[in-house]
Amino acid sequence: MVSNVLVTLILLLLFLISVGGAPIDAEVKQFPGFDGEFPSKHYAGYIGLGDEEHKRHMYYYFATSERNPSEDPITLWITGGPGCSGLDALAHLVGPFEVVPDTFHYTKQPKTRLSPYSWTKVSSILSVDSPVGTGYSYAENADDYITNDDKTVSDLYDFLIKWYSEYPEFLPNPLFLAACSYTGVIVPPLAQEIAKGIYEENDPAK
């Protein structure tokens, strides 16, 4: 039984990889305040969740590993708050950019440069604005801005399932979950949902 399921998943994975990869129109070529060449491929966009009455749009920024993106792990990063944009982590915490000292002023756009301490040296970083209403993530129904930890976990799990359907070539890569501040509360139940989905043989590409 297990071997049959494994063969099916492998065949599905090979099919998905053969029909496409990262969306071409999602590739990022510029970052605010940065002049230079990216050290790896970057992508950004929206993943749609919900139904016709409760459409939610989760914004993500995906910076691939500078070392070996086809084999290095993917780290899903959720910034704390709740309600802090994942973009904050890209320029202040774990991402490939850092703000150049003495360039930040409320009348000017700050300069950014490549960070020598970026986690993208060894891992791809998938940053998401969560919950809806954070950063660039938005809902079409005002009621969906009223949220709680359970809804946040559910949306993040659905986000991951749909994100992998757009980036199927990264399905074989190890996945790590990381967060700061309050979102440390979100990581354990999200990991539990992922483990439950694997146990119940829910394919992440559905």
TrEMBL record:
Give one GO term, molecular function aspect: acyltransferase activity, transferring groups other than amino-acyl groups
Q: Which domain of life is it from?
A: Eukaryota
Signal peptide interval? 1-21
Which ranges of the sequence are coiled-coil? none
Is-annotated flag, keyword Signal?
Answer: yes
Q: Which InterPro entries match?
A: AB_hydrolase_fold (IPR029058), Peptidase_S10 (IPR001563)
Q: Which family does it belong to?
A: Belongs to the peptidase S10 family.
By what name is this protein known? Serine carboxypeptidase
